[in-house]
Amino acid sequence: MKKFIIIYTIISVILLVFVTAFSAYNQYLARMIDVFNMITEEAVETRDLDTFIAYQSKAYELVQSEISGDYEFFVYRSLGEDSEGDFEQLSIYVMPLNDVTYATDVDDDQDQSDIVFKNDQGSIIYQLSDDENYEGEAISYGIEQIGFYYAAIRLDAFMHINVEVYDYDHQDIYQTAYDYNSIFNIQDEGVSPGMTEEELNGYIDFNTYVRPEILNTVMIFIVVDIIVGSALYFYRKKSKKL
Fold first, then answer.
1. Torsion over CA of 20, 23, 26 and 30, rounded to 10 degrees?
2. Phi, psi for 39 (deg, rounded to 5)
3. How far is Cα 130 from Cα 65, in angstroms, rounded to an integer?
4. Maximum CA pair distance of the chain?
5. The overall pTM is greater than 0.85
């Protein structure tokens, strides 16, 4: 029986480590989703996207914000980072001010919303509706999901950029232009830093939201493990007597 106890204990410890790591990963991921939703809701309520942009960039600059018709439009220039290094991008956000028509189903094939970026020759640089990542998806469904929809392009070469925005019925609701003629400089006036690790950790609040969930999962595992182990122990003990 001592051999059984030793083997069961070793297996239990291994499983405990796995359960703890798995729980930590899932609870942290769930909290990150909650933080994203919280920041998004705050952006819609305050009509201020700065924190939303800071959350996903190294630095950013609000180029312009403008109310036109039933919408408010925000244009941002930001500095991002991926596996290949830093990159600049220009993004435009479309946020309704009043009740407007938009897709309430991601598969709404009647939705003709779009955001189009063109160069000064009129050639399309990027068109949101043609992006394969959103193929078959209603663009204005973003309003249903998070309160706005948006599009972004990478700034790889100096150019003049025209932006056109269309609503659910494909009505031209906004046009603007941007001259990309200088490299993004974090020291420039009007440029704000992205969210720091300390600020992000403040939103996550690990000790309040993540740790208790991990401990709860671990405690459940330990209780179940003890019950199962005890049952197996007494079953084997009884079997040997028979």
1. -120
2. -65, -40
3. 26
4. 91
5. no
- How many C-beta atoms surround the C-beta of residue 157 within 10 A? 7
Structural contact between residues 72 and 48, judged by C-beta atoms closer than 8 angstroms: no
Beta strands in 29-188 (DSSP E): 59-68, 71-82, 85-96, 114-119, 124-127, 149-154, 159-166, 172-180
Which of 92, 213, 80, 62 has its CA nearest to residue 164?
92
Per-residue pLDDT of the chain (242 residues; tens, 9 = 90+): 677 778 878 888 899 999 999 999 999 999 999 999 999 999 999 999 999 999 999 999 999 999 999 999 999 999 988 888 889 999 999 999 999 999 999 999 999 999 999 998 989 999 999 999 888 899 999 999 999 999 999 988 888 999 999 999 999 999 999 998 888 777 778 889 999 999 999 999 999 999 999 999 999 999 988 888 777 767 666 666 55
3-state secondary structure of 119: strand
User: Is the CB of residue 131 less than 8 Å from the CB of residue 114?
Assistant: no
Backbone angles phi, psi at 218, to 5 degrees: -65, -40
Taking the C-alpha atoms of residue 82 and residue 175, their distance in angstroms, rounded to an integer, is: 30
Distance CA 112, CA 119 (A): 22
Q: Which two tokens stand for residue 104?
A: 């309430």
Pairing of β 149-154 and β 85-96 = antiparallel
